[in-house]
Design goal:
The structure holds two protein chains of two kinds. Chain A is an all-alpha fold. The radius of gyration of chain A is 20 Å and the shape is elongated. Chain B is an alpha/beta fold. Chain B folds into two domains: about 120 residues, 2-Layer Sandwich (Beta-Lactamase); about 170 residues, P-loop containing nucleotide triphosphate hydrolases (Rossmann fold), CATH 3.40.50. In chain B, helix 7 runs parallel beside helix 8. Chains A and B meet through helix 5 of A and helix 3 of B.
């Protein structure tokens, strides 16, 4: 029975380690996706002057990704006049990322084309930088997190035995 | 469409009015809201009889809704002092002009007044005039003259529609809709009935649209709103010289007022327009008061 419990704990530790490491991967992918979205925004705003809501619709339709629901949420909240925070529900983002993302989304559509381009360029640079940081953190910490997780599992097993 | 633009307080107050008789809403910051109803300006009141005042938030709300949170897509319009929202609702704006170094307006900031004009589609309002414009499949160049709000745009829209219904043949009609008011296009598709043989160029200047469309679309007749300056007049003269008929409108109360503007005096002297239609408020929007021919001989009164 004890061995069965230990195996279960070790398996749980293994999956917990994997899941924690996945946050870095997801954050990296999200920021990469955001930077691609910025390019999409720029071409639609500067050339076609497409309206914000239609840009979101087009992006979700043409470039469907695991973040579609997040983009839909952004779209709904940008169009919502109450202007409440738009990044609160994204669990894998850090607090400072949420603030920056929120400010970016609040600024979308609020100025002329030239200023919109500047806003998008600045945010794209931020997203690319964060993506690089996430990739680097993932490389350096992914193994460590996994090992720590397994070690915690092992310690619990030893204590039980 | 209109209610999508307005805060709930104003929407509630407007519900007691017949929307077909509502033509304009005037919103000025910190002032009572005025509506034009059945041709008269009246104060908008709550159910309790209190005047409704506008403030900065109400103006910002309307602008946000009208631009669909995409101000950059409307800046060319804002520079010219208006925004055309969905459904052809034209919102005139007043505020502080931000100028570039050469004194050309870049945008308008601190917008403090809005004039919301509600378009009305009156099917058949041009039936009487149409037989003077298009008879035995011959189209006459026509100028529609009236003060603002007398129904020029409504009439032009119905004339375009009638080319598909009453003309007895298929004419290629082109609407040059500089301010999105005649056809009210959304994603290129007219939202108001302008007939099935009609092409619409929206948002382009008359000069540009006339030149390019004559080359590429081969229209039989071009319909356009509000000739304003020499460029517009020249565009019309060029179109007629190319063998295309023109039906246009212009702001003026009467013939002498029209002649007082040099460019229109030149236009009238050229005898380009074989039909000059004067509208008045007498009965309602689109009421035809008189029609003259190119020699200024009255042919309908």
């Amino acid at each position: 029975m004890i061995y069965f419990v230990c195996i279960t704990i070790m398996a749980a530790s293994y999956f917990a380690g994997k899941e924690i490491a996945k946050i870095y991967v997801k954050r990296d992918r999200f920021f990469k996706n955001l930077s691609e979205f910025c390019d999409f925004l720029k071409s639609n705003i500067s050339f076609f002057q497409t309206k914000i809501s239609e840009i979101f619709d087009g992006y979700i339709k043409d470039y469907s990704s695991e973040f579609d629901n997040i983009y839909k949420q952004f779209q709904n909240l940008i169009m919502d006049e109450n202007g409440k925070s738009v990044a609160e529900d994204i669990k894998f983002l850090k607090a400072e990322d949420k603030v920056t993302l929120n400010n970016f989304l609040k600024g979308l559509g609020k100025s002329d084309q030239k200023n919109q381009m500047m806003l998008i360029d600045n945010f794209k640079n931020y997203a690319l930088k964060r993506s690089e940081e996430c990739a680097s953190a993932r490389r350096s910490q992914e193994g460590l997190i996994f090992k720590v997780s397994l070690a915690v599992g092992a310690v619990i097993c030893i204590l039980i035995i | 469409m209109l209610y999508d633009l307005l805060p709930s307080l104003i929407c509630k107050a407007l519900q007691s009015y017949d929307q077909t008789k509502l033509t304009e809403i005037r919103i000025r910051r910190n002032c009572p809201i005025v509506i034009n109803y059945q041709g008269k300006n009246i104060l908008l009141k709550t159910a309790d009889g209190e005047n409704i005042y506008s403030d900065k938030e109400i103006i910002e709300f309307i602008l946000r809704k009208a631009t669909e949170n995409s101000l950059y897509a409307f800046n060319n319009q804002v520079k010219q002092g208006f925004i055309t929202a969905r459904g052809g609702i034209r919102i005139g704006i007043a505020g502080e002009s931000v100028n570039s170094d050469n004194f050309m307006p870049k945008t308008i900031k601190d917008i403090c007044s809005l004039s919301i004009r509600i378009p009305h589609e009156i099917v058949g309002c041009s039936n009487l005039i149409f037989k003077f414009i298009c008879n035995e499949q011959i189209i006459k160049n026509t100028l529609i003259v009236s003060p603002p709000g007398a129904g020029k745009t409504t009439l032009l829209r119905d004339i375009a529609r009638n080319f598909s219904h009453l003309s007895g043949t298929i004419f290629n009609v082109l609407i040059v809709d500089e301010r999105f008011e005649i056809a009210s296009c959304e994603n290129g598709q007219p939202m108001l009935d302008v007939g099935v043989f009609t092409d619409v160029v929206s948002g382009a200047s008359k000069d540009y649209a006339f030149t390019n469309a004559i080359r590429s679309l081969r229209p039989d007749v071009i319909i356009t709103d509000e000739l304003a300056d020499e460029n517009d007049v020249n565009a019309c003269l060029k179109a007629v010289a190319s063998g295309v008929k023109v039906i246009a409108s212009v702001h003026a109360n009467n013939l002498s007022e029209l002649r007082s503007k040099t460019e229109f005096e030149r236009l009238l002297n050229s005898k380009m327009f074989s039909r000059i239609v004067f509208l008045s408020f007498k009965i309602g929007p689109g009421y035809c008061q008189s029609i003259f021919d190119e020699n200024m001989k009255c042919i309908y009164f």
